[in-house]
Specification:
Elements (H helix, E strand, L loop, with lengths): L3 E4 L8 E7 L10 E3 L2 E2 L8 E8 L2 E10 L10 E7 L2 H12 L4 E2 L4 H8 L5 H12 L3 H13 L2 H22 L8 H33 L1 E6 L6 H9 L17 E7 L2 E7 L9 H16 L2 E7 L6 H9 L5 E6 L12 E2 L8 H15 L12 H20 L5 H19 L5 H8 L7
Parallel strand pairs: 1-8, 9-11, 9-12, 12-13, 13-14
Antiparallel strand pairs: 1-2, 2-7, 3-4, 3-5, 5-6, 6-7, 10-11
The structure holds guanosine-5'-triphosphate and magnesium ion (MG).
The site of magnesium ion has 4 residues, from α7.
Length: 442
């Protein structure tokens, strides 16, 4: 294994920059490390040192610590050094470390070392990325659980059931003239059902994974001038979208990610929908109508000053199948009553908290987290489990007509899929796909 080095904090002017050296020759950096004027000769495991990094034209007061293989994040010898947060110092230090034959790490290569050394499996390696990338509390919880357990419980359950079936099938392969007894058939079907039940539950978590990562899409719609862009700005806490008292101000669809009560949300402001002769406005309105199809929740805005009219009813027709929250805005200028879920004034902020509470409830009903399955499957994991599920369902359907040889082949296929999932079997391409997403230093 190569010895690699990289900053594990951003390489920018900041308070502290930490670099990590990992690999069989990591302790060679001792060449540049001094404590009380003396070179460090042997690093003690998990000891923190305060000293100096001295190499050619640089010198810095540093803190460093070491981990001995295999008891480190990567499973290799590891030294981490924290410098004062000036990237010039760290660039120079790195240059000197390269002279020792230690190279700059590729994206995700520390985690890849951990995987190759068997410290973590591939599900856990992916969970490291998911944990850092998560934009919501649910996502963080899920990825942390995956990181801790690698979904061992689930994976082992499926594997054991597959092996149980395989042992029955293989016992009969050499005696093709004999049939499985009723008892053995029942045993096999029970195990097939166990697997199907578990897989269906697991696969259903992918929907939530998608919401957690891509965000729940919430479109703000309504006729022109009801305050859609004002509400968008209010929720984003910035003047992101142009607001004016001229109807037809917003011409484009504007999307922004925000966090609402711990949930990752994609908020979409749309052009006010009405019959218009303005060419550009018409294009914007068409865009908005298309966006409506993607929305998981629709915030339908009304105007409490002007009341409901034919335009509102036409828009209502467009979204009647959607998950709608009816929001009556401009409470501060209320002239009429409107049948709605909540009254607000974006101008004074009144009622917006109530709106957020209603939104939270709606989001929760979409981002369903099953108490037994808090670990959410990523796309790769979903695809692998889905392939196994399809195979198992076929096996169950055709159990009576399949030859034992074919059954054994199918069962081995499923076991192999699981091994690919956990990384017991892997290809360089697969690893590249997974680790290329990481940043350098992870
Ligand atoms: N009094 C009052 N005025 C508001 C309120 N919310 C928005 N407005 C005003 O209503 C006008 C229209 O607001 P916008 O946010 O641009 O409305 P819009 O729905 O995005 O309009 P289009 O982009 O044209 O579809 C602006 O003058 C806002 O300042 C409110 O709660 N009370
Ligand atoms: Mg607008």
């Amino acid at each position: 294994m190569d010895t690699i080095v990289a900053p594990i904090t951003p390489l920018m002017r900041t308070s502290v920059i930490v670099i990590r050296v990992s690999g069989p020759r990591a302790f060679d950096v001792s060449k540049y490390l001094y404590v009380s004027g003396k070179k460090i000769n042997d690093f003690k495991h998990k000891y923190v040192y305060h000293g100096e990094f001295i190499a050619d034209d640089i010198k810095d007061d540093v803190i460093f610590y070491a981990f001995h293989s295999p008891n480190s994040y990567t499973g290799e010898n590891v030294v981490e050094i924290s410098f004062h947060g000036n990237p010039i110092i760290v660039q120079k230090a790195l240059k000197n470390i390269y002279k020792l034959g230690i190279r700059l790490a590729e994206p995700g290569e520390f985690t890849k070392q951990a995987f190759l050394n068997g410290k973590i499996d591939l599900i856990q390696a992916e969970a490291v990325y998911e944990l850092i990338d998560s934009k919501s509390v649910t996502g963080i919880y899920s990825s942390y659980e995956k990181l801790r357990s690698g979904m061992r419980g689930e994976v082992d359950f499926i594997k054991e059931n597959l092996l149980d079936i395989l042992s029955v099938v293989e016992a009969y392969i050499d005696f093709p003239e004999e049939d499985l007894s009723d008892f053995e058939l029942k045993y096999v079907y029970e195990r097939l059902d166990n697997i199907i039940f578990k897989l269906e539950k697991l696969i259903s978590t992918f929907e939530t994974f998608k919401y957690v990562n891509e965000g729940v899409k919430i479109a703000i719609i309504g006729k022109p001038n009801v305050g859609k862009s004002s509400l968008m700005n209010y929720l984003l806490r910035e003047n992101r979208v142009i607001v004016s008292d001229i109807p037809g101000t917003t011409r484009d669809v504007v999307e922004e990610e925000i966090n609402i009560k711990g949930y990752n949300v994609k908020l979409i402001d749309t052009a006010g929908i009405r019959n218009s002769n303005d060419k550009i406005e018409v294009i914007g309105i068409e865009f908005s109508k298309n966006k409506l199809n993607e929305a998981n929740i629709v915030l339908f805005l009304f105007d409490l000053e002007k009341g409901v009219d034919e335009d509102d009813l036409q828009i209502m027709n467009l979204v009647k199948d959607k998950n709608i929250i009816k929001v009556a805005n401009k409470l501060d200028k209320k002239m009429v009553d409107i049948d709605c879920d909540v009254e607000i004034s974006v101008k004074t902020g009144e009622g917006v908290d109530d709106l957020l509470n209603i939104l939270e409830k709606q989001i929760k009903s979409i981002v369903v987290v099953n108490e037994d399955n808090k670990q959410l499957l990523s796309e790769r994991q979903r695809d692998a489990f889905l392939e196994i599920l399809n195979h198992i369902q076929d096996i169950k359907k055709n159990f009576n007509v399949l030859t034992l040889d074919l059954l054994a082949v199918d069962l081995h296929f499923c076991l192999n899929k699981i091994s690919e999932l956990t990384g017991e079997i892997y290809t360089e391409d697969l690893l590249k796909n997974i680790f290329d997403k990481f940043c350098i230093g992870k």
